[in-house]
Design brief:
about 325 residues, mainly alpha, Recoverin, domain 1, Wheat Germ Agglutinin (Isolectin 2), domain 1, 2 domains, 3-stranded antiparallel beta sheet, 7 strands, about 55% helix, globular, metal-binding
């Protein structure tokens, strides 16, 4: 460089990280983390990338599908990421800003998985990082991730589950949000997984092995709860609810809507709920129902019944 100074971050990445600091006033860690990751989603354009394109691109670059201990040099990782966005763009003009998306995604992956700048990144880390932040449905991500982590018998053992969770947690760690999800170790989560579901070593129950992993992930273990929250956030962004926020009076409520199950006919918008705002009767500790989509009439009736049960139990 002319200045003889090493610039490790793209100027747009520096600005993005500064912008993320403004989200620290969100009271709840899962929502705060999801909001930060959604901003990263959009800036890197990873939310446009699909898993079949990721798999095909990696295959073209001699990175096999499945578990691998291959290390990639930075030029190799850069080539893969650029090819990924080119392949995703296809024949569509200006669908993706390929130079910017490639630069920022490479910058992001290095910041997460090679913060000391050793000059190498594990291919497995790249797979996990990109697939967690890509456009796929949650179940498709879990299916892909299981395939990358399981052994030749299609079994995910403790060692690889530990590695998987550690790799996942590097993402919230990068945005200073990892402590709430794992403390100092992922071992409690690993122990919980193997106590909750059964992992057997026979080829005859291959489907059950993946199914067990899926059931555990769908139950949203604390270590990974930010990921399904990110997916609900993305779904809810433009949703309009026929309800008024009882705190700030927003109507219609846009985004997440929260209904108190203790107060009668009491709704909050995501801004008020995330900030922990209360009213004369409504308190932070009250049970609430989150909606990322507009509720059906059946759900409304079900929630009304919950409120009435709360009212009755309070009078006893």
């Amino acid at each position: 460089h002319e200045t003889e100074k090493t610039q490790w971050d793209h100027p747009a990445m520096i600005q993005l990280m500064q912008d993320l600091a403004e989200l620290n006033n969100i009271k709840y860690a899962a929502y705060r983390t999801a909001m930060k990751l959604r901003a990263i989603h959009k800036k890197t354009q990873l939310y446009l990338v699909e898993i079949p394109i990721l798999t095909a691109t990696l295959d073209e670059e001699d990175v096999p599908d499945g578990y691998t201990e291959k290390a990639l040099s930075i030029p190799e990782a850069s080539k893969i990421i650029t090819a990924l966005f080119i392949n995703q763009n296809g024949d569509r003009q200006d669908f993706i800003d390929i130079p910017m998306a490639s630069d920022l995604t490479l910058n992001l992956m290095l910041n997460i998985y090679d913060p000391g700048r050793t000059g190498y990144i594990q291919a497995l880390s790249l797979k996990i990082g990109i697939s967690l932040l890509c456009a796929a449905k949650l179940q498709d991500k879990y299916r892909y991730l299981f395939r990358q982590m399981c052994n030749s018998r299609a079994v995910l053992d403790r060692k690889r589950l530990t590695l998987f969770l550690q790799e996942c947690l590097q993402i919230p760690k990068y945005i200073y949000e990892s402590t709430i999800f794992s403390g100092t170790s992922v071992e409690p989560a690993v122990k919980n997984c193997f106590e909750t579901v059964s992992f057997t070593y026979t080829l005859e129950v291959e489907l059950q092995k993946f199914k067990s992993f899926m059931e555990w992930m769908v139950a949203e273990p604390q270590t990974i709860v930010w990921l399904p929250t990110l997916h609900r956030l993305a779904v809810s962004e433009t949703v309009k609810h026929e309800a008024k926020c009882n705190i700030c009076k927003m109507y219609p409520i846009v985004g997440f809507r929260y209904r108190c199950l203790k107060c009668f006919n009491f709704d909050l918008c995501q801004g008020c709920f995330w900030a922990g705002r209360v009213s004369k009767g409504h308190k932070i500790g009250h049970p609430t129902q989150e909606y990322c989509l507009a509720p059906s009439q059946k759900e409304d009736i079900k929630d009304f019944a919950k409120v009435m049960r709360n009212k009755v139990s309070k009078k006893k």
